[in-house]
Amino acid sequence: MRILIASLVAVACAAAAELNVKRVVLFKHGVGFFERQGELGPGESARLDFKSEEMNDVLKSLTVNVQGGGAIAGLRYDSSIPLAEKLAELPFPAGERLPLSTLLDHLRGSPLELKFGAQTVSGTIVSARMAAATEEHGEREVLTLLTNEGDIRALDLTAATAVSFLDARLQLQFKDYLATLLQSRSRERRSVYIDSADSGRRTIQANYMAPMPVWKSSYRLVFPATGDPALEGWAIVDNTTEEDWTNVRLSLVSGRPISFISPLYEPKYVQRQVAELSEDAAAKPEVHAAGVAGGAPGGVIGGILGARAKAAPPPPAPAMAAREMLLVDAPEARAEFAPSNLNVSTEGREAGELFEYAFTQPVTVRRGQSAMLPFLQQKVAARKLLLYSGDGSVHPRSAAEITNNTGKTLDGGPLTIYDANTYAGEALMETTKASDKRLISYAVDLGTRITAAFDSSAHTVREIKASRGLLTARSAVRETKTFTIKNVDARAKTLLIEHPVRPGYTLIGMTPAEKTPAGYRFQVNVPASAETKFAVQEERLLETTTSIMNMTPDFLGQYVSNRTLSAAARQQVQTVLDKKRELAAAVRDDQDTGKQIEEMFRDQQRIRENLSALNRVSGQQEQVQRYSRELAEQEARLSSLRDQQSQLRKRRAALESEIAASIEKMEF
């Protein structure tokens, strides 16, 4: 039979003082606060067990208080040194289910004692191995031992009834080896130890933060057939720790404090430089220089000062006893919900930027289980209405506007709505501070249909200004969206229409009931069995700036006729317009003259080509003379056209100068 290491030595653990969980505070960002309390006797150590992934938060947040005076010697915890690194310091091999022969072979030269029934054999280990199976024997472990009598013997370890290390130090190392292996198999558990410092028996309290699932909230909004609406809140709490929470003080905190993981548990190593001294074959005498001045020894003084102050919390708000709860009663084919007599026992208070619900009665949640705890049940200000967002559907949604007049923060979560003792739908509600308001939608109202039509008007110039040669015109375009609402139900309804806020657009002659970062909400009262219309009119202001010098007469003429101009401004624009028209006429005349000159040049080129051809042919003198007279006449007309073009260009320059001067003076 093969002997395994784990069967040789039993590791005993000393009893430790227990610190029981007394208080739990759960947050919404993945951590929980734990308060433990217990008595620590003289020489005792209290042990707190954690999962390895919890250690970073524990080391970052752990505090220990000793009640009634006294102190603790310190805190220590299981390190996270890798198994191979720990085993490297011990003379034993690493591995799972190692045979005894492999262990003993690593201890060659160590004294050992074996018992075979009544016979005892002592000696020094030479080697150990697994012997292959033969026809007479199966596979077995063989130890080669140098006995105290001087014999070298091969012993069958399978037949040994006891094996003992004769070296006491090796025996202690072997216990450490087994303890290390045991710890490696329970990698999920790490322990923090609190050691007592004196002979007195003290009550100690340990507080720390640890990763925890966030607590979840859900609500029921009840619209009774008569009377005020009621809001009921439930908290869902998960105990994922390794122990029961028995009669603990439980608090739930709503808010989003900043939290992060800081790697404190894993050892951190720094790469250091390698420095060596020179190795000389022999040392030689040296002459040391004498000192020229005295010096005072230096020193470093360090200190740590810690202080904690706890402000008195504000008086808690009175708890509201619940008189109504939702129980299912299904007469015939309709689900109705009757009230119950469950009481809600929580106190709510502001905790800085957070809000805390503290259960006034102890709470018990078994490990690996979850609990559903009521933390709110009271009347609430709420009204039913319809909400239309133009999301592609012709039907609006049944909605509710909830004003948080509970005096408490309502943590975000799902909301189930009951209307006149009947299930009406579900919604999601964001976290709502006291006195804040939220709009939720929970169903589609098939008794109301809504269509929308869009219309826009042309740009209308509202204002014209001129300065430094620039003309600025402010104009507006109006757009109208008309909603046609048809209510086929025989009851009046209140409708909220959501209209998006568009950059550059402003509302004309209307004020929304509410504005959100993304849109407006308009309230429309819809009569029973009727059709009504509601129009949203918006205006977009446009501003264009143009250089007056670059404006054409036609474009500038549009501004002269604009009624927004004063008489003085219109006169300034008219002056520039008249000169621009003159300039335009001069430009056209200049262009026409230029075209005539170009045509005459082309005609002269044709005549010269004809003269050149006729001069090479005899008997064409009469034709040559006719072309010569025509060419001379064109030269005279060409000279006149050039003079005309010169005058036109001078006129253009003068007009441009006059226009520039007029524009420079223009101001209105």
Question: How far is it from the N-terminal to the C-terminal residue, by CA?
Answer: 113 Å
Shape: elongated
Secondary-structure-based class equals alpha+beta
Our count of domains comes out at 5
SS strand fraction = 35-45%
Major beta sheet summary: 8 strands, mixed
The overall average pLDDT, rounded, is 80
Give the C-alpha Rg. Answer: 50 Å
In total, how many beta strands? 34
Give the proportion of residues in helices: 10-25%
Give the helix tally: 7
Give the uncertain stretches in residue-range form.
1-15, 280-335
General description of the model:
- The protein is of the alpha+beta class.
- Strands 1, 2, 4, 12, 15, 18, 19 and 20 form an eight-stranded mixed sheet that branches. Strands 26-23-22-30-33-32 form a six-stranded mixed sheet, with no helix packed on it.
- It is 21% helix and 39% strand.
- Helix 5 runs antiparallel to helix 6 and helix 6 runs antiparallel to helix 7 (621-665).
- It folds into five domains: 5-98 and 167-211, no CATH class; 111-166; 216-246 and 320-446, no CATH class; 449-549, no CATH class; 553-665.
- The longest helix has 48 residues, at 567-614.
Features:
8-stranded mixed beta sheet, 21% helix, 34 strands, alpha+beta, 5 domains, 668 residues
Question: How does the SSE layout of this entry go?
Answer:
Blueprint: E1 20-26, E2 31-40, E3 45-51, H1 55-61, E4 63-67, E5 72-77, H2 83-87, H3 100-105, E6 111-116, E7 119-131, E8 140-147, E9 152-156, E10 162-165, H4 168-185, E11 189-196, E12 202-211, E13 216-223, E14 230-238, E15 245-254, E16 327-329, E17 336-338, E18 346-351, E19 354-359, E20 363-365, E21 370-379, E22 381-388, E23 397-403, E24 413-419, E25 422-429, E26 437-444, E27 448-456, E28 460-467, E29 470-487, E30 493-500, E31 505-507, E32 514-515, E33 519-526, E34 530-547, H5 553-560, H6 567-614, H7 621-665
Parallel strand pairs: 1-15, 13-24, 22-30
Antiparallel strand pairs: 1-2, 2-12, 3-11, 4-12, 5-11, 6-7, 6-10, 7-8, 8-9, 13-14, 14-21, 15-19, 15-20, 16-17, 18-19, 22-23, 23-26, 24-25, 27-29, 28-29, 29-34, 30-33, 31-34, 32-33
Helix pairs in contact: 5-6, 6-7
